[in-house]
Fold this sequence. Notes:
This protein has helices spanning 58-62, 88-91, 96-112, 115-118, 136-157, 188-191, 222-249; strands at residues 23-27, 35-41, 44-53, 69-76, 122-131, 170-178, 181-184, 196-203, 208-215. By secondary structure, the protein is α+β, with helices and mostly antiparallel strands. It has a single domain, classed as 2-Layer Sandwich (Ribosomal Protein S5, domain 2). The strands form 2 sheets. The protein has a 5-stranded mixed sheet.
Amino acid sequence: MSEGDSSTNQRPDGRAVDQLRTVTFKNNIAPYATGSTLIEWGDTRVICSATVEESVPRWMKMQNVEGGWLTAEYSMLPYSTLDRKRRDITKGKIDGRSQEIQRLIGRSMRAAVDLIKLGSRTIWIDCDVLQADGGTRTASVTGGYVALSLALAKLQADGLLDCNPVVSPVAAVSVGVVNGVSILDLPYVEDVAAEVDMNLVMNANGEFIELQGTGEKNTFSDGELATMLAHGRKGIAELLELQKAAIAEG
């Protein structure tokens, strides 16, 4: 198969090289959160919630920083993987991977919002992985934005926000190179075999928020990078439309 050819493929699930897995949202999955959704992305499932606190972190008060704050926490539940995953609390500290991912989610959400317009409040984005089959961080970012948008709509409806502080919607997707072919949206079986693994976070203006790319087993060329980015842009555009529809449903 030639690079970028989507007409034929050898992917385990039969998808074309530039095709997303099925992505769906089930909103209001956590009724006590201000906004929430269950994102089902292939066989990966993540509950994303947004909870509002009418205060800001102490460091913002100490430094007289105006506006609000957005931050995130991420965890994989013990039964989310084939082999039981120990809870971080049993180890006495959050593991490095979870810390990296929750920081990514927080950066992505802050890039989506005008923090001054948010007002003097904090929004927590909590992402809990129920089932992991690759792409849990991209699902968390993509679902996290839906939960955030639902929470902001509620704040507006309750008269706590004068306007929507969203600057631009954000979504995330994985790309990579497997068996010499650049592909979009890697499930676990492809992720572990990938020669190159990359995660893209982008906004609706076509701008990059974050690129995380690594040559896992091999180097990659300019051409492979260009193909991965093209696949990623296509996937992000589709995800943004799915997000828009989910948010409209409320």
